[in-house]
Amino acid sequence: MALPAATRGAAGLGLCRIAASASSSPPSSSAPPAGGRRRERDRELPFGLAERGMVVGGHRGMGMNAVGAPPGARVGAARERENTLLSFGRAAAHSAVAFVEFDVQVTKDGCPIIFHDDFILTQRTGAVYERRVTDLLLEDFLSYGTQKKPRKVSKPLFRRTTGDGRVLNWSTEEDDPLCTLQEVFELVSPRLGFNIELKFDDHIIYHRKDLEYALQAILQVVFQCARNRPVFFSSFHPDAARMMRELQSLYPVLFLTEGGTSKHHDSRRNSLGSAIQVCLEYDLHGIVSEVRGVLKNPAAVVSAQDSNLALLTYGQLNNVWEAVYVQYLMGINGVIVDRVEEISNAVEGFSKTELNRSVVVVDGAKHQAFSQQQLGFLLRLIPELIEQPH
């Protein structure tokens, strides 16, 4: 599924030729005018979610990589390197996958690149070297990991474990070079939607000009390359989400939230109720919540629907088809998953349940569907089983 070397090489010429022209000034006239705000009843949801059933998005492509995860683990053991053309291409091959979610940051020289972590790590002579991604020039960033040119010497990639912070070699069964936002638009099937997460460090206080610089660089690429591809933005940073909404009116903007499963110094990020208020105040199109936050607060689903807000979820429970089925019955618009093939096939099977309410088809196997009584019991029980906020 990897792209031919000749194709990749051609796309690599002038990797950031579009973003290089980005500045703090508004995008070119090809961009829609800013401030095109709509009333709630006229707000358009991404992918026509108001008319569609549940959609499935691939987390960083075919799933995230968790260093140290044992082979076959339900989460973090994707074969492909996350956030690469290989991983996105594999996701595009699954017709039931509507979009991929990926993280975009902007390099020091103004190029939007695809990378999740705030810091990138390598090792030389036994010592670990750590650099902030946004402090790197594009050429420096692309020098990490496997290279497009086989003979080019690269810096090996390392990563911290999420639990104890150990630094381990970041290896995958199938590797692929790091890439830019422009490459992803140009080389991934245009039928696949993009959920572009606007990535900012939680530990930095950003001035408006810094946010605008990054967002303008991203918009330059999107406006030039998106064509008819479905695109929507999301961000944990409420001011970045608000600013992206103000800068353009063509693409939906959703607010990312942990839904009350953890505490943050910014109160706007601490509950689903707060997330709904952020969306209404900033005229955003919807919410992407940690799934536990939704399952602990099913009433928020009704509030979001009443406010004409899209509601999607992410998190480890989205890799368990029964948990996804509960969300399907609750009316959740979409799920972002790591077990892309398994869950996308399961969601396809859910639609068949409409014809036979007693059976759910998952990976060709038939399972008993939940009755309304069982669903009510599950919704009452799940909050007790999920870790409470801390």
Which features characterize this protein?
8-stranded parallel beta barrel, PLC-like_Pdiesterase_TIM-brl, 390 residues, alpha/beta, GDPD, single chain, 19% strand, two-stranded antiparallel sheet, glycerophosphodiester phosphodiesterase
**Alpha-carbon distance between the two ends:** 43 Å
The mean pLDDT is: 84
Mind telling me the C-alpha Rg? 21 Å
Indicate the overall shape.
globular
Organism: Urochloa decumbens
Domain GP-PDE: 54-347
Family: Belongs to the glycerophosphoryl diester phosphodiesterase family.
Protein name: glycerophosphodiester phosphodiesterase
What do these coordinates show?
This protein is an alpha/beta fold and 390 residues long. The chain has helices at 5-12, 85-92, 138-142, 181-187, 208-225, 238-247, 272-282, 291-296, 299-306, 321-330, 340-353, 372-385; strands spanning 55-59, 97-106, 112-114, 119-124, 127-132, 158-160, 167-169, 179-180, 193-198, 231-235, 253-257, 286-290, 310-314, 334-337, 359-362, 365-368. The strands form 4 sheets. An 8-stranded parallel barrel has the order 1-2-9-10-11-12-13-14, surrounded by 6 helices. Helix 5 links the parallel strand 9 and strand 10. The radius of gyration is 21 Å and the shape is globular. It starts with a helix and ends in a 5-residue tail after the last helix. Mean pLDDT is 84; it is low at 1-13, 22-42 and 355-360.
